[in-house]
Write a structure and sequence with these properties.
The chain contains 33 helices and two strands. With 820 residues, it is mainly α. Helix 18 packs antiparallel against helix 19.
Length: 820
């Protein structure tokens, strides 16, 4: 009975009696503590600021933990003159993956973006390297059972904190404990809503395995049951199919595994426990039944169980990613173009733009740039070519072979079996998730952490050998090893510095965006963007600087306090800054179509100045070559041609845009504007009527149709009113539609109805002086524009800008978002 109890001691017992306490703090122990603390903080750590991305905080804590661990492990090796690490085929295969990633990054055409990106993209070489370094370090420093089990305790404690935090917010509302980071009810410390489900799936899996394969006190067992049920609650609430299928599969496998062990006479409990070796793992069976019920529920048109829980707690979440079929199409195209090394790490978007299905353009995701495929592993394979695919197949093949081989090997005691089975199942669960999903940094790094633990367990049980490299006895070998370790230490310190730079640059980038889009303070926006670019270069920062300069350029036209000379000087200065920023973006990443769109906008803003059209056209064409299936870029070229007074070419690009996306109303309306400019109002009305049919739920389509009929020489106010009524029916807050509907009603002799429409516009826009002026005239029995003085005139349909500054169709957008 005693042999199956778990006895936990701090440190290695054999060492505790022979080494003084101060040795606890040697370099190797610091290396271990660094990883243990990082693993504990990984799910919990965040910076309570709206300017700090949650994902970047997770990346930073793990990068620092791994690199600090690597530095002190290296120092420990130098001090002791030797290294010990697990000798497994997984390490050469992992090194092969890292090598392929590095070579692919070097030949990607965008080195810095593939190597490091902005710091938080999982597809970069840097974070893949950190992941495998984490795996290696965990396997090297978690040498004893107690160290391995402490990592389990850390996971359970951190999961309890996550559970309590998320439950408190779920019950108290999204504003409770928002801390400037968690803005809605699905926001959480792990990442996306589905990531939280995956995390609790891992916790549930480990809890169930621990319950079934170990013997604890009643209090500890009660705690484990509580954690399991708590995890199951959030898995059910989140209701992510990948988790249910994986948990159900593992429950079935583990149920069969437990029964097979008992049939072979290997007990998972004490022989004197209730039921002895014939005891059925009922708790595993319970999880299997629950998983099966939710899987069946997931195939129903209405998810009775899942939806009822979500409705009760008022939780709504939608996440979009390419399907397996869509990802496979991208993979085929990428392999044809770059068969050996792929397009490069962190370059899935480039492949997506080139090889996505034509049918995507007729969905609501037609202009969405997907940076990942259906899962992170398929994404990795897509971007690293055939060599990358082979390297991952070898790695997974070895992992599965080693795992399934060792979980059936007879070991000395039940605790050893527990550590082997639990660490393998946890790592396998996480790798499966990485195949079928793109996880957050927390799940991504936990995958490598548990894989390292699995290797460490096998080494501690002597199921794989330990490799010892001693170099003190040989001066030549000593020089080589110390030089290599010095390089590792310097590289680790440099890597930490690089990621700190990227961390701060992202903070300033977010501050700049907030200033630009929030307060509209261009000075603050520019100052923060410059700081972001000074900490770490990125084309995103340079594009932002260009956009800020463009906003400044547009605001110059309203400056009345400047002389002509001062105005010209400011124009020249701002324009040069725009050119400088857009060029820097292209220099950083010459394969990002957005950089060429930004450069094109810079020169389009000064058309018809000499040479501007040509440079804008060249940049837009380059963007089109990188994103050839984009209706938007074709439409952008069409608009450039209209600015250049070339309606024939403008029509060609607009028609091409419609060929790519046959329900693209913006292209239809541009064609209509061209017809209007050429005096073909009737043809324009036909085009817009066709556009309104293509987009029957688009209020803008009916609004533009109404404006055309209102502007027609035949004064078709009735037809205009009908179109505006449809626009208002779809979007009751569409102020400009109500504005023109009111004018249409007045011209039809329905003054009372006209007043009601303008009253509605006024309620939505209380500060609009023109609407106040029109209402006063109508109430006094005068025409809407009687006694009008500039800037108000009686031809609002011919103005450059709409009469009401639209806060814009918020209600419609919310409805569309809900439907999506």
């Amino acid at each position: 009975m005693e042999e199956n109890k778990i006895e936990i001691k701090i440190g290695n017992p054999s060492n505790q009696e022979t080494k003084p306490l101060k040795k606890y703090y040697r370099s190797e122990k610091i290396s271990y503590i660094s990883l243990l603390v990082s693993a504990f903080l990984l799910p919990l750590f965040f910076i309570p600021s709206q300017f700090t991305l949650l994902e970047l905080s997770k990346v930073l804590i793990m990068v620092l933990g791994v690199l600090i661990s690597l530095v002190f492990w290296s120092l420990s090796g130098i001090k002791e003159g030797k290294f010990e690490f697990s000798s497994t085929a997984l390490f050469p295969s992992a090194f092969f993956i890292i090598l392929i990633y590095f070579l692919s990054a070097m030949f990607s055409g965008s080195k810095m973006n593939s190597l490091f990106g902005q710091g938080f993209e999982l597809g970069t070489f840097g974070l893949v390297f950190i992941g495998f370094a984490l795996m290696f370090m965990v396997s090297s420093v978690f040498k004893t059972r107690d160290r391995i089990f402490y990592s389990y305790i850390c996971l359970i404690i951190s999961s309890l904190i996550v559970f309590l935090f998320q439950t408190a917010r779920l019950l108290s509302g999204a504003d409770f404990l928002s801390l400037g980071v968690f803005k809605d009810i699905t926001s959480n410390m792990i990442g996306k809503w589905n990531d939280l489900g995956i995390y609790f799936g891992l916790v549930a899996l480990l809890s169930v395995v621990t319950i079934e394969l170990t013997k604890f006190s009643k209090m500890m067992r009660f705690f484990l049951y509580f954690i399991s049920i708590a995890s199951l609650f959030f898995i059910a609430l989140i209701n992510f199919k990948v988790v249910w299928f994986t948990i159900g599969f593992f429950a079935l496998i583990f149920f069969i595994y437990s029964i097979s062990l008992k049939m072979r006479g290997e007990t998972t409990k004490s022989e004197n426990s209730s039921g002895g070796s014939k005891r059925t793992p009922y708790f595993v069976l319970f999880f299997l039944i629950i998983s099966t019920l939710f899987i069946i529920d997931g195939f129903r048109s209405k998810h009775i169980i899942g939806d009822s829980m979500a409705d009760y707690f008022k939780v709504s979440h939608i996440e979009v990613r390419p399907s397996f079929r869509g990802t496979s199409e991208i993979l085929k195209g990428s392999f044809k173009k770059n068969p050996v090394l792929g397009s490069g790490p962190n370059k899935f978007l480039n492949d997506w733009l080139l090889f996505k299905s034509d049918g995507i353009n007729n969905t609501i995701f037609w202009n969405f740039d997907f940076s990942y495929g259906v899962g992170i592993i398929p994404t990795f394979i897509t971007t690293t070519g055939i060599l990358g695919m082979i390297s991952w197949i070898i790695f997974f093949g070895l992992f599965l072979y080693i795992g399934f081989k060792n979980i059936f090997i007879k070991v000395g005691n039940s605790f050893s079996r527990y550590l082997i089975v639990s660490s393998f199942l946890a790592s396998l669960y996480l790798w499966i998730v990485n195949v079928f999903y793109v996880p957050s940094a927390v799940i991504f790094f936990l995958t490598f952490f548990f894989t390292g633990l699995f290797i460490s367990v096998l080494a501690s049980e002597n199921l794989i050998p330990l490799k010892r490299l001693a170099f003190l006895s040989n001066s030549r070998r000593n020089f080589i090893f110390v030089s290599i370790l010095a390089i590792i230490i310097i590289s680790s310190i440099t890597g930490s510095y690089v990621y700190f730079q990227k961390f701060f640059s992202n903070i300033y980038f977010q501050k700049s965006l907030n200033s630009l889009n929030g307060s509209g303070n261009l000075d603050d926006a520019e100052r923060y963007a410059v700081k972001a670019a000074s900490f770490s270069k990125s084309d995103s920062y340079y594009r932002l600087l260009s956009d800020i300069s463009l906003a400044r350029l547009n605001s110059l036209s309203s400056r009345k306090d400047l002389t002509k000379e001062a105005l010209n000087n400011q124009f020249q200065s701002i324009f040069q800054n725009m050119i400088k920023s857009s060029k820097a973006a292209i220099d950083y990443d010459g394969l990002n179509y957005q950089n060429y769109l930004t450069a094109g906008r810079v020169y389009e803003s000064i058309v018809p100045m000499e040479g501007a059209y040509k440079i804008a056209y060249e940049n837009y064409n380059k963007a089109l070559s990188l994103n050839p299936k984009s209706p938007l870029i074709n439409l952008t070229l069409a608009r450039l041609e209209t600015s250049n007074k070339n309606n024939i070419k403008a029509k060609e690009y607009a028609i091409k845009s419609l060929q790519l996306k046959n329900n693209y109303t913006d292209a239809v309306f541009l064609l209509a504007q061209i017809e209007i400019a050429e005096g073909n109002i009737k043809e324009a009305i036909k085009l817009v009527e066709a556009g309104s049919i293509l987009a029957s739920d688009n209020p803008v389509a009916y609004f533009q149709l109404g404006v055309l009929k209102y502007s027609d020489k035949e004064k078709n106010y009735k037809g205009a009113a009908e179109a505006f009524e449809k626009a208002v029916a779809i979007s009751p807050s569409y102020s400009n539609a109500r504005y023109f509907l009111g004018l249409s009603y007045y011209n039809l002799g329905k003054t009372i109805d006209a007043i009601r429409q303008f009253e509605s516009v006024q309620s939505l826009n209380p500060d609009n002086k023109e609407v106040e002026f029109i209402l006063k005239n109508l109430r006094d029995g005068r025409a809407p524009f009687a006694n009008a003085a500039p800037p108000i005139d009686d031809k609002p349909e011919k103005r450059k800008n709409l009469p009401v500054k639209e806060d814009g169709l918020k209600e419609t957008k919310k409805k569309e978002a809900k439907q999506r």
